[in-house]
Write a structure and sequence with these properties.
By secondary structure, the chain is mainly alpha-helical. It is built from nine helices and five strands.
């Protein structure tokens, strides 16, 4: 799959930002999902337009996870622009660490606020609690290992109908 440079840079910077605040890999990826949902709810758009896969333990942001796997050395994608290993260190399947400071100019204030909000939610939770939280209606609408429809994610929001109308009018 080919990703735009802008989308890739935002995804990578999101991972750096989250890794500065939370080193557990599963929590970082779930924070992206929750932040995306909040940003959709408040502003009618995703953080970096990632797609989500309904994996066994919950929704997984596809591009972000590809970057993590590449940084860990087991991804099938090669990113030549801003090599992930320069930005994040993923020594195993459980942890992610920043290799450099977060570059704030790549994310908007609203995106950072939603990431912070998601971090506050995920940090105190156990694995099982976070898994349960992320197995929402949008997740349940997809088959395991298949993409979760962005429309289903939006429909799971209390203002989903308004967001869908807004997005269709653009």
């Amino acid at each position: 799959m080919t990703y735009s440079k802008r989308k890739y840079h935002k995804a990578l910077e999101t991972l750096v930002y989250l890794a500065e605040n939370e080193n557990r890999h599963y929590w970082v990826l779930k924070a992206i999902y929750l932040a995306d949902k909040e940003h959709l709810h408040k502003f009618g758009r995703q953080l970096f337009d990632d797609s989500y896969i309904a994996m066994k333990d919950g929704p997984v942001p596809s591009l972000a996870y590809d970057i993590v796997k590449c940084a860990r050395g087991d991804g099938r994608y090669t990113f030549t622009d801003l090599e992930p290993k320069n930005a994040i260190n993923v020594p195993d399947r459980f942890h992610i660490y920043p290799n450099r400071p977060f570059q704030s100019e790549l994310l908007s204030q609203s995106e950072i606020e939603c990431l912070d909000s998601a971090l506050k939610i995920v940090k105190p939770l156990t694995f099982d609690q976070l898994k349960s939280l992320s197995h929402d209606e949008a997740y349940k609408s997809a088959q395991q290992d298949e993409e979760i429809s962005t429309e289903k994610i939006i429909e799971s929001l209390d203002n989903g109908k308004d967001i869908l109308e807004y997005m269709q009018s653009k």
